[in-house]
Specification:
By secondary structure, the protein is of the alpha+beta class. Helices cover about 20% and strands about 30% of the residues. The protein contains 9 helices and 28 strands.
């Protein structure tokens, strides 16, 4: 008996048996209970008193993912493959949570803002404990799970807002920035892992999410409306609750200042109360949106068309592409193609290239490059080059090259010069842009100038599928900015 007591005492002191204390966070509508050992114990909706989490599911509240072990001790012990480091200790100091992780020296500092309808969580920083011996660098974090909750399945689940609800209660885990990744994953046995996190390729410190609980669908819309106002987000709830939200629209084709009256009459006959103008009717290019010959007065002609629709009582929207440029736009064909296209692949010249050569030798195997008609394109400096084929055996090369396409100039290029294969769209008329640089801002301003000057009232974002990785971010970020 004494030996057992001694062993139990040792286990408790050493942390082998650790039951953990409760950390309670609550507001007017919910009570969230966290276990000191790193997981969520309970989430109660106060409206009906029901538990919202799967009991006994010790899902780590936070998690660090490294694409391979980076710590010098870990990568000597573990294979070079993705490795998770779950939270194993949580402490609270006022409105701050400090979270520690198994097998790492990281400490996440998470600030909370407890509001009547929701609780926000923001990753302020990740501290790193250095050992007393020697100097050790901070190890990388590739992905960080800010909140993970094992939410019980309900009758409905909405992927767009990451919300689960029925007639009695609703739970939502919503990002407050485009840089916050929101998702949900089935866990089986009537449970879903609701997730809010971050990726280092986008942003880690500063990402945030809100946890909202309500007594049902309308209560959740009230909570999300409050979040959108508090964080300066687009007013999605206001839009959803507007009378116009459910209206069908008449989308014009071959619209001109001369025939706008006929389009309005067709819309009236169909019972439509909204009309949408596709940019291809007035613009001959995508990117700069240069006006075509059917609009000789330029933006003044478009203003007239929009004003006629509004005089007829129509709500007028603009249908445009925002994440790519057409090959006849100045971004591509003004003689100096823009260097800010999205890159599908990158290469290195393995030998110098003169302006007449029809073979481009490269150091990398080009296997897997685009081979569809209109998509066989590479960009070396300010020159665009099309190719007919390639060699995937050494010496690697692109063959049958046409030099200086899209009005660019054929020129000499030095050995080891780096270049890209632009990410030509599924429709070869377009090239996708790098949304992480200033070209997306420029295109947003071009669209905003047309939108504001002409008095448009809503936007149709076309081409959201035509973005580079990470898809979850590039779709939401660009629309948020435009």
């Amino acid at each position: 008996m004494r030996r057992f007591a001694a062993l139990l005492s040792f286990a408790l002191l050493s942390g082998v048996l650790c039951f953990g204390k409760d950390i309670v966070i609550e507001n007017d509508v919910m009570k969230l209970v966290l276990n000191e050992n790193g997981w969520s114990e309970s989430l109660i909706c106060k409206a009906d008193g029901r538990e919202q989490l799967k009991k006994g599911c010790r899902l780590p509240l936070c998690n660090i993912l490294q694409y391979r072990p980076y710590d010098n001790e870990n990568f000597l012990m573990f294979p070079a493959k993705p490795m998770n480091f779950p939270s194993n200790r949580i402490t609270r100091d006022g409105d701050t949570l400090r979270v520690e992780f198994r097998d790492t020296y990281d400490i996440a500092v998470i600030s909370m803002n407890v509001r009547p309808q929701y609780i926000s969580f923001t990753l302020e920083r990740v501290d790193y404990r250095l050992e007393d011996f020697g100097v050790k660098r901070k190890t990388e974090i590739d992905e960080f799970a800010l909140l993970q909750l094992p939410v019980l399945e309900k009758k409905h689940f909405g992927e767009w807002l990451n919300v689960s609800w029925d007639e009695k209660s609703a739970v939502c885990l919503l990002g407050i920035l485009p840089e916050t990744r929101i998702d949900a994953f089935p866990m089986g046995r009537g449970c879903r892992r609701m997730y809010a996190g971050a990726e280092s390729a986008v942003m880690l410190e500063g990402v945030g999410a809100v946890l909202a609980v309500s007594d049902g669908k309308e209560g959740m819309l009230d909570a999300i409306d409050s979040v959108e106002k508090d964080f300066g987000m687009p007013r999605g709830v206001e839009s959803r609750r507007s009378e116009q939200y459910g209206f069908s629209y008449y989308e014009c084709r071959e619209l001109t200042p001369e025939n706008v009256g006929r389009h309005i009459e067709y819309a009236r006959q169909g019972g439509f109360r909204q009309m949408v103008i596709y940019y291809t009717d007035f613009a001959c290019t995508c990117g700069h949106y240069l006006f075509n010959d059917k609009y000789p007065g330029g933006i003044d002609d478009l203003k007239y068309v929009v004003s006629e629709m509004k005089k007829a009582g129509m709500t007028v929207g603009l249908h445009m592409h925002y994440c790519k440029v057409s090959t006849d736009d100045p971004y591509v064909c003004d003689g100096t193609p823009d260097p800010r296209f999205s890159a599908f692949r990158s290469f290195t010249l393995s030998s110098g290239l003169d302006s007449c050569s029809t073979t481009v030798y490269v150091g990398e195997n080009p296997s897997g490059v685009r081979m569809e008609d209109g998509r066989r394109l590479i960009q070396i400096g300010s020159e665009l080059i099309s190719y007919e084929s390639f060699s995937s055996v050494k010496p690697y090369c692109f063959k049958g090259c046409r030099r200086g396409v899209y009005n660019s100039a054929a020129s000499d290029h030095s050995v080891y010069e780096r270049f890209i294969q632009p990410d030509v769209d599924d429709w070869p008329r377009f090239i996708r842009i790098d949304q992480n640089c200033s070209i997306q801002d420029e295109i947003a301003r071009n669209i905003a100038n047309i939108y504001d000057s002409c008095g448009f009232e809503f936007l149709y974002f076309d081409g959201a599928e035509d973005v580079p990785n990470p898809y979850w971010y590039n779709v939401s970020r660009s629309q948020y900015k435009v």
